[in-house]
Amino acid sequence: MTQKIKVGVCGACGKMGQAVINAVSRENDMELVSAIDIVNVGEKTGGVIIEQSLENALKEREIQVVVDFTNPELVYKNTKLILENNVRPVIGTTGLTEARLDEIEHLSRKKSLGCLIAPNFAVGAVLMMMFAQKASKYFSNGEIIEIHHNKKKDAPSGTAVKTAQLMAGEREKFSQDNCAETETLKGSRGGVTESNIHIHSVRLPGFVAHQEVIFGAPGQALTIRHDSFDRISFMPGVIMGIRHVMANNDFVYGLEGIL
Questions:
Q1: CATH number, position 218
Q2: 197-220 pLDDT per residue, tens
Q3: Are residues 81 and 173 in the same domain?
Q4: Of 20, 55, 185, 248, which is most buried, counting CB atoms within 10 Å of its CB?
Q5: What is the DSSP letter of 180?
Q6: Are 25 and 32 in contact, with CB atoms under 8 Å apart?
Q7: Peptide bond connecting 156 to the previous residue in cis, omega within 30 degrees of 0
Q8: Distance between CA atoms of residues 255 and 177, nearest Å
Q9: Residues marked as catalytic
């Protein structure tokens, strides 16, 4: 009998954490062994008791992979702690700076431990990013609009940042033929990346995760859009990520790196 992958979930009581627990519980090759959160401590979820300390869980439980969906303030500390305890992280929390990503990558390679950090685990969203990258070869003007629920703390989203990075890999500068602009209301044109891609962040109740990339050229426009209506859309990617970090000792940023 094949040994099951022992999984811990950090941020277990959040909506994403609960979706991950349900997804892991459905897989024949995985076993939930730890649920970590600062709320509902002592109660049960997914058949395990919720505990408050990630550090204690890493030392006391036989965890092989930790899936983290917490918040931007905790993710850097959590990811380092996971790797330092020789456990493999699958990180869905966004908000990590490039410098911190570099540090985590260095630690992952030093430890020879698989580590996956993905701004978006929905396969459709990853394809949207890849299509936007491809389109950037042919369109010199493009902007990003991302829409999330009003409880999301960071803006722009990690998906939007990753999309802009992929687009910049195909074209150094966008919208160079635009006229000089003056904002009569500060922020009207959104945030601007180094490659001159404008990112517009919308936060409204009722939404989950949505993004469109709009390209314009003389006489035509191309819109590439992805919508996640339910958090279940992220679960195939999370499960794929858990299996990948167990089978490989590499550092991967972005789900496209394992598709």
A1: 3.30.360.10
A2: 999 999 999 999 999 999 999 999
A3: no
A4: 20
A5: P
A6: yes
A7: yes
A8: 33
A9: 148, 152
